[in-house]
Amino acid sequence: MESSPLSWRLSKERIKPASSEIKGVIESFTVVYNAPKGYENHVPYTIALVRLANGERATSQIVDADRVEVGMKVEPCLRKVYVNGDKGLIEYGVKFRLIK
Amino acid sequence: MRIPVIATSLVKFGDLWEKGIGDLMMESGEMALRNARLKPGMVDSLHIANAFSQEMCSAIAYEKLGIINSVSVNAADASGAVAIREASNSILSGQSNVAMALGVEKMADFKSNEILAMTSKLLDNEEFFAGATVQSQFAVMTKKYLNDFGLKAEDLWFVPSKNHQNGIGNEYAQYRFELKQEKISSSPLAADPIRMFECAPYCDGAAALIMCSPRAARKFKAKGYLLASSVASGSSGLSKRKSLTSIESTKNAAEQAYHAAGIGPKDIGLAEVHDIVPISEVLAIEDLGFAKKGAGLSYIKSNSGKINLSGGLKACGNAPGATGVRQAVDVLRRLKSSKLKYGLAQTLAGTGSISVVNIFGG
After folding, report:
1. How far apart are CA A80 and CA A5, in angstroms?
2. Chain A residues with beta carbon closer than 8 angstroms to that of B144
3. Of A4, B168, B284, B353, which shows the fewest CB atoms inside 10 Å?
4. Within a domain: A42
5. For an interface test with B, which of A32, A50, A51 has the most B Cβ atoms less than 10 Å from its Cβ?
6. Residue B254 has pLDDT above 80, yes or no
7. Backbone φ and ψ of B112, nearest 5°
8. Would you say residue A7 lies in a domain?
9. Beta pairing partners, B228
């Protein structure tokens, strides 16, 4: 088994760009101003329902976008979601960004 | 089925700082018992609905009401409505002659961001992880609805405004004042395009009703009848739903309930529906068969004396565990004081992961 630092170094080459299968289009969205506990620091943030190219749907935050509209094309990216607990464990997850 | 309802009770909804959950159970439970002239020992089964504020409600009910056979029901905002169904099932099975459904909730002790975190757990994991709330997912549905049917966000402000107008006459409602549409426009956004004053507030409250078997009905005076009680599940997340402008679980529950009661949407004289945000009332009207898709709002406008006469969740406040029972009590009391034959109560959990439709006859 690879050690953690080695995995980390190798991962740079292993991460492939998102396949076209999981790129998608924004079907509907909202901008959240009144956030649940743990998400207050992100306000305002955009949550969208994304129709993926493979026909499935995903609900996710849209990041790095000044303006979001229905029909915009998006792709997944790995982002920080929140900091869990007092020890500051960071939870990462998939969010979507606009395809330029 | 035609199950006699022999007692109803309501505690005024609100931020009831001076009352604990046991006090609320005792107040509503004892009021219902007195109403039917029953002793606690005569209740064969108690179904306690509570969504967020208390574990082991049965023990508290035993201590406060002296009822031995009780079970807790948790189906989020639909808990109260499900408790009515469970009580009716207990009677139909022959296990109980007398069954009580009691809904109780304490939400005022929580901060608003805590409530948002609690209620967002009702959503799909994917939505919860994205920081979604029940309101934000309804906002996603609202945007799609407005887009599909050529409406503007402000068109929906009629719904909460009408419900507040109705709530003025309801002594059990938390907010008995007019809410002008201009006031809604000046409130901050909760989740675009839904504004804060369009969202039903969470509060404390309790309500109860007692039913009996048709055989035992001779001993009591019926206040009305439960004719059908249907619960249907749907996806908790929007991603897995066929449509964003319809709540499938409400459609299914309504279809089953109408079938069981042997009536149709045209026979319903008044309805209490789940107006946690305006779009949920509009979709309910359409999915219950009162209006065609896209025509829900105009139906509400021309039937404001029929839908949510209590003021709905918006003016009454939403005490999740109690709301379903509160709606039922409201429908029964209004049927009793009018010549209308049939009334309906529709309740959702989350954004429609569960729908309950209860139909009552006067």
Report:
1. 20
2. 27-28
3. A4
4. yes
5. A32
6. yes
7. -65, -35
8. no
9. B359
Name the residue range of residue A50's domain. Answer: 19-98
Q: How far does the CA of residue B139 sit from the closest CA of chain A (Å)? A: 6
Question: Which CATH number fits the domain that encloses residue A81?
Answer: 2.40.50
Q: What share of chain A is helix, strand, coil (3-state, %, to 5)?
A: 15, 45, 35
Instruction: With respect to residue A62, please indicate whether it lies within any of the assigned structural domains.
Output: yes
Of B131, B144, B196, the CB nearest to A35: B131
Q: Does A23 fall in a domain?
A: yes
Inter-helix orientation angle B278-287/B134-149, to 10°: 60
For chain B, the structural domain boundaries read 3-109+202-219
Q: Does B278 sit behind a cis peptide bond, omega within 30 degrees of 0 on the bond before it?
A: no
- The model's pLDDT over B37-58, given as tens digits with 9 standing for 90+, comes to 999 999 999 999 999 998 889 9
Distance from the Cα of A37 to chain B's closest Cα (Å) equals 5
CA dihedral B60, B66, B70, B72 (to 10 degrees): -20
Q: Parallel, antiparallel, or unpaired for β B342-349 and B98-105? A: unpaired
Fold observed for domain B3-109+202-219: Peroxisomal Thiolase; Chain A, domain 1 (3.40.47)
Does the beta-carbon distance from B140 to A38 stay under 8 Å?
no
Q: A81, B129: Cβ pair inside 8 Å?
A: yes
pLDDT tens, residue by residue, A3-60: 778 877 887 677 666 666 789 999 999 999 999 998 998 999 999 999 999 899 999 9
Q: Which residue among B114, B131, B240 places its CB closest to the CB of A42? A: B131
Rounded to the nearest 10 degrees, how much is the dihedral formed by the CA atoms of B160, B254, B97, B335? 50
Contact B136 A27 (CB under 8 A): no
> Which alpha helices (H) appear in B223-318, and where do they start and end?
248-261, 278-287, 296-302, 312-316
Choose from A26, A29, A30 for mutation: most chain B CBs within 10 A.
A30
User: Can you tell me the distance from the alpha carbon of B46 to that of B96, in angstroms, rounded to the nearest whole number?
Assistant: 10
Cα–Cα–Cα angle for B205, B321, B156, rounded to 5 degrees: 85
A48 close contact with B: CB closer than 8 A: yes
Total of domains in chain A: 1
Chain B: residue nearest A27 by CA? B144
Phi, psi dihedrals of residue A59, rounded to the nearest 5°: -105, 125
Between chains, do B130 and A57 touch, taking CB under 8 Å as contact? no
Q: What is the pLDDT of residue B304?
A: 86
